[in-house]
Amino acid sequence: MSDRLLVLVRHGQSDWNLKNLFTGWKDPDLSELGVSEAKEAGRKLKAQGLTFDVAFTSVLKRAQRTLDLALAEIGQTGLATKCDLALNERDYGDLSGLNKDDARKKWGEEQVLIWRRSYDVPPPGGESLKDTLARALPYYVQEILPGVLRGERTLVAAHGNSLRALIMVLEKLSPEQILKRELATGAPVIYRLNADSTVASKLDLAA
């Protein structure tokens, strides 16, 4: 019986997370804490005795670097990796690069909260969570899931909102439930799937 292993990990803290900026498709690197979180993710996976056959990540460096640092801890540098913008963070449009407090001053607390926490209301020039799901889910179904079901042990390093898309399907969550789902930076979530792609077991390694 194959393992059907799928591990999701949100990138470690970025410089812009640290500065309280909307990031989206902008491409800041990891902060010092983010580097530590990425390495710790790798150590946690190693402690579970896990190795991987393939990895997926976004085209943004904070996710790619998290993946590289985690794989180095496991001793799997050079693992076959596929990068795709389908796994990118939600595009925050006109909010990208703005301090969250400044955005609240400009548009008002209530409006910014709607953009951040509603399911289908996008910020100006950007994507809603629903839009993010619409690009991440087909990629998961077509590119990631078939390998997992064949027994390829798979690691996905991506972003809070693109990973929510995958979690929404895996855990059968409603739009309301997925909005409330928080993902810690650098904390792997380990799924083992049944042959029909449903979840057999889940282990969240958040500290």
Automatic annotation (TrEMBL):
Record-annotated active site: H11, E89
Keyword Isomerase carried by entry: yes
GO BP: gluconeogenesis; glycolytic process
Pathway(s) per entry: Carbohydrate degradation; glycolysis; pyruvate from D-glyceraldehyde 3-phosphate: step 3/5
InterPro entries per the UniProt record, alphabetical: His_Pase_superF_clade-1, His_PPase_superfam, PG/BPGM_mutase_AS, Phosphogly_mut1
UniProt-annotated binding residues for substrate: 10-17, 23-24, 62, 89-92, 100, 116-117, 160-161
CDD domains for this protein: HP_PGM_like
SMART domains referenced in this protein's UniProt entry, alphabetically: PGAM
Catalytic activity: (2R)-2-phosphoglycerate = (2R)-3-phosphoglycerate
EC number: 5.4.2.11
Top-level taxon of origin: Bacteria
Enzyme class (EC, first level): isomerase
Swiss-Prot/TrEMBL site (Transition state stabilizer) positions: H159
Gene3D superfamilies per the UniProt record, alphabetical: Phosphoglycerate mutase-like
GO molecular function: phosphoglycerate mutase activity
Family in the record: Belongs to the phosphoglycerate mutase family. BPG-dependent PGAM subfamily.
Chain's role: Catalyzes the interconversion of 2-phosphoglycerate and 3-phosphoglycerate.
Name of the protein: 2,3-bisphosphoglycerate-dependent phosphoglycerate mutase
Source organism (scientific name): Bradyrhizobium australiense
Encoding gene per record: gpmA
